[in-house]
Amino acid sequence: MSAIRYPVAATAEAALSAPIGRAARASQAGALAGAGVEFASEAVGAAFPSREAALDAYAGRLDDERPGHAAAIQPEDRYCALVELAAEPRRTPAAQKPVYRAGRRWPKPAAAAPATVWRLIVRYWRVETARPLLELDEPAPAAPRKLATLDAKALRERLREPLRPVKPQQPLDIGLFEVRPPEAPHIVMPDE
User: Fold this and answer.
1) Digit-coded pLDDT (tens) for 104-125
2) Is the separation of the CB atoms in 62 and 68 below 8 Å?
3) pTM listed for this prediction
4) For a tag site, which of 19, 72, 114, 118 has the least CB within 10 Å?
5) Parallel, antiparallel, or unpaired for β 178-179 and 116-127?
6) CA Rg, the chain, in Å?
7) Contact at 8 Å (CB) between 16 and 8?
8) Tens of pLDDT along 116-168?
9) What is the DSSP secondary structure assignment for residue 110, as one 8-state letter?
10) Long-range Cβ contacts of 82-85 (<8 Å, 24+ apart)
11) Shortest CA distance to 62 belongs to which of 20, 15, 122, 3?
């Protein structure tokens, strides 16, 4: 059996329209991209009210077992899938008490099932952007004394900033259960 050859691209839309290439393994994808890659799975395109409408829109990308439309995709080309999603964000239902009537513990739900839509999911190798995670050249910004004095926008911006150390962490020179005696600080002794 051959492995699925996933597209290598920066975005899911690019994976569908113009990928850099296709690869089965991360090492192959990294060689094609010339950078690091990560595996991603994203929804793309419009939401369709029925599975049939989605299959018609993405003909040739998905297996179609409907009569008159029979199409089978090669095993290495199976990087797309259709999924059924809730059309609206689901609201948390109110807590209910058990009823213990007619052999049922919980009451029947009052609300009907939520409306659903069909979306195309593309699995691909996403090209990672090359940027350092920690830049020690620039100093860390001084923390304000009181966060309560910031307005909402400034507070959101402050919370989005990554945590950066003031200075690099020093390596540990002794273990967890070792101690330096005060009369001979150049000796490391086990602590019992």
Assistant:
1) 787 777 777 778 899 999 999 9
2) no
3) 0.57
4) 72
5) unpaired
6) 28
7) no
8) 899 999 999 999 874 444 444 555 556 555 556 778 788 788 887 877 777 77
9) S
10) 82/51, 82/54, 82/55, 82/58, 82/118, 82/119, 82/120, 82/121, 83/43, 83/118, 83/119, 83/121, 84/51, 84/116, 84/117, 84/118, 85/43, 85/47, 85/116, 85/117, 85/118, 85/119
11) 122
DSSP code of 48? E
Tokens of 148: 């309560």
pLDDT at 147 (0 to 100): 55
Amino acid code (one letter) for 186 = H
DSSP letters of 10-32?
SSHHHHHH--SEEESSHHHHHHH
Can you say how many angstroms the Cα of residue 161 is from the centroid of all Cα atoms in its chain?
Answer: 20
Determine what percent of the chain is predicted with pLDDT higher than 70: 85
pLDDT digits (tens, 9 = 90+) for 2-28: 688 999 999 999 999 989 999 999 999
